[in-house]
């Protein structure tokens, strides 16, 4: 799906702003890009951002929306800003760092893999995927492919990529920030499932009975 110029500009600006916060945390452009793992992390960040432009996802409130769940976006925004700045900062000053370069590259790999998992379902759902908890026009359930195993693969990808980002900076503080995202994400999942259950009734209830929320065999 071809992105609009406005969306492309907004995505590029947001990506640059996020990277700028991380660079500020590290203490400057040259120091930030002095390590190849951070260069790789940056390349992955922009590759994922460009791919997201063609996914078809949106932030439409659609036909029905659970507006009471919008607080989740604000919390994720605050945690996201902290995760952009604090991990590079704590890595630079050597506060609560984890291991060495192996951890950095593990983080880059998790960021890339989680980012792909985050976007994959968005490409599958297209316009049915919204950043809001909402039912879109023509909304139908997708219960095949990865959705035949777990109901929220994009959220799992979000957590994995978030963990990958902070581990690329060896940040123990970042790991705590990622863990703080879990209860907020669970609240989002519960709101989304309640809306889908109300919209699709027994069809969705049956789907839930044979799938896992995010981790097969665990959750």
TrEMBL record:
Its GO CC terms are: membrane
Its transmembrane ranges are 7-33, 39-59, 71-90, 102-120, 132-150, 162-187
Keywords in alphabetical order, please. Answer: Membrane, Transmembrane, Transmembrane helix
Localization terms from the record: Membrane
Domain of life assignment: Bacteria
Q: Which GO terms describe its molecular function?
A: protein C-terminal S-isoprenylcysteine carboxyl O-methyltransferase activity
Does Membrane show up as a keyword for this record? yes
Q: How does it sit in the membrane?
A: Multi-pass membrane protein
- This protein's name: Isoprenylcysteine carboxylmethyltransferase family protein
The source organism is Cupriavidus necator (strain ATCC 17699 / DSM 428 / KCTC 22496 / NCIMB 10442 / H16 / Stanier 337)
